[in-house]
Amino acid sequence: MSAPSHLDRAPSLADVLAHRLEHDIAQGHYAPGEKLPSEQQLATTYGVSRPIVREAIGRLKHDGLVTSRQGSGAFVAESGGASVFRLDVSNFKDRQEIESLIELLMAIESSATELAAQRRTDQDLIAIGNQLEAMQAAIERGDSGVDEDVAFHQAIVEATKNPFFMDLSTFLDRRVRHFIRTARANTAKLQTGHMMAVQDEHRDIFNAIRDRDAQGARQAAENHLKQAAQRLAIYMKPV
Which residues contact 29 (CB under 8 A, 6 or more apart)? Predict the structure, then answer.
C-alpha cells in the first residue's frame, strides 16, 4: 500500500487530518491495535505541524477510533471500538444535511434556553448580557461577531447547570464550528439590517431568560434557528 501523501494547507486543518487518518485506518493503513507513529512522524508524513497532529489525534480519541496507553503512545482502537456518537458538517451545498443539522440544533438549543430561563442566576444573566453587548459592539465596529455569538450561546448553556448539556454543547461546537462561523460570517457580508435582525433575535432570547419566561425563551431560540436556516438558504442560492 502506498504511503499517504501530504495534505494541502486549508482551514480547519486538524479536522482535515482527522478525516484523513480515519480514512487511512478504514483502509487498513493502520490496523486495529496497531500503535500509531509518533506525533513528529505523523507531522512529517502528512506535512503538518505537531499541534495539528495532536488536535487531530484528540478528535479521533473522542470518537473512539484511537486509544491512549500511558507511556506507550496512541493506538488504533480494536474493531468495534468506535461506538460513540459522531457528527461532521462539511458540505454546505447539501440542503438535506443542513436541514437535519438545524433540526438537531433546534431541539438542543431550545431546550437548553428553556432550562436557562428557569435556572439562571443573577451572575448567569450578567454573563449572557455581557456577550450580548459584546456582539452589539462587534456589529458597530463592522466585525462579524462570530466569537461573541458563540460565547453568548455558551453562556446560556452554562446557565442550565446541566453538565451533560455543557458537554454536548462543547462537542457540537467542535463538530459544527465551521458551519456556525460560516453562517455568521456570511450574515456579516449582507446589509447591516440583517445583522441587526440577528441581534434582535438574540435580544428576544436574553429578555425571555431575564424574565424567567421559559416558554418564551424556547420559542425565541427556535425562531432564531429558523431564521438562521432561512438566511443560510439565501447564501446557498446559485449566483
Answer: 1, 4
- Which residues, including other chains, have CB under 8 Å from residue 13's CB and lie 6 or more apart? 7, 48, 52
Task: Give the N- to C-terminal CA distance of the chain in Å, as an integer.
Answer: 43
Query: CB-based contacts of 141: which residues, under 8 Å, 6+ apart?
Result: none
Q: Is residue 218 part of a domain?
A: yes
Q: Using one digit for the tens of pLDDT, what is the confidence trace for 100-109?
A: 878 888 899 9
Return the C-alpha cell found at 235.
447564501
**If you write DSSP's letter for every residue of 13-51 in order, what string do you get?**
HHHHHHHHHHHHHHTTSS-TTPBPPPHHHHHHHHT--HH
Instruction: Dig out the grid coordinates for 216 from the structure.
Output: 418564551
Provide the residue type at 174 as one letter.
R
Of 179, 176, 184, which Cα lies nearest the Cα of 201? 184
Cα dihedral 202→203→205→209 (10° resolution): 140
- pTM, whole model, 2 decimals? 0.63
Residue 87 lies in a domain: no
Domain co-membership, 70 together with 169: no
- Does 57 share its domain with 99? no
pLDDT digits (tens, 9 = 90+) for 24-74: 888 888 888 899 999 999 999 999 999 999 988 988 887 778 888 777 788
